[in-house]
From TrEMBL:
Protein name: 8-oxo-dGTP diphosphatase
Organism the protein comes from: Salibacterium salarium
Keywords: DNA damage, DNA repair, DNA replication, Hydrolase, Magnesium, Metal-binding, Mutator protein
E.C. code: 3.6.1.55
GO biological process: DNA repair; DNA replication
Catalytic EC class: hydrolase
Amino acid sequence: MKKNIHVVGAVMIENQKVLCAQRGDSKSLPFKWEFPGGKIEEGESPQEALQREIIEEMHCSVEIGEKIDYTVYEYDFGIVHLTTFYCKVIEGDPTLTEHAAIKWMFPSDLHTLDWAPADIPAIEKIAKTLNTL
Ligand SMILES: Nc1nc2c([nH]c(=O)n2[C@H]2C[C@H](O)[C@@H](COP(=O)(O)OP(=O)(O)OP(=O)(O)O)O2)c(=O)[nH]1
């Protein structure tokens, strides 16, 4: 039986752009693009996990808004349950630490990156929702 991996991702919006992060080559899904975040630890709520991961990974604090999507995707290494939330930076600036690259993209351009497969439904939703604002 494959293990279930519960993951949260932050869709950080600034100046109408979304922060995208590219995974490094020493991890699962090398060089795929994802939303900053990570695994929920025991006893944490999704929001607590996301606050912690963003401080650890991006060296900034976020205010967590509305949930965007929940998707389940079966990889060879396990079954990822990904929940994404809209977020706003409230302290500090997102900083490149663990990722290979980070960049701000307009929602309509998100599909041009090579995303982790679990993220595809979320990027489609984001592009649709933010382009009609
Ligand atoms: N943070 C994040 N992870 C994602 C996304 N989409 C997606 O499939 N994942 C996967 C990649 C990882 O297997 C897992 C998150 O793990 P993590 O970020 O806490 O850990 P990691 O990359 O250091 O770990 P690992 O998989 O190399 O063990 O979820 C996403 O948008 N954001």
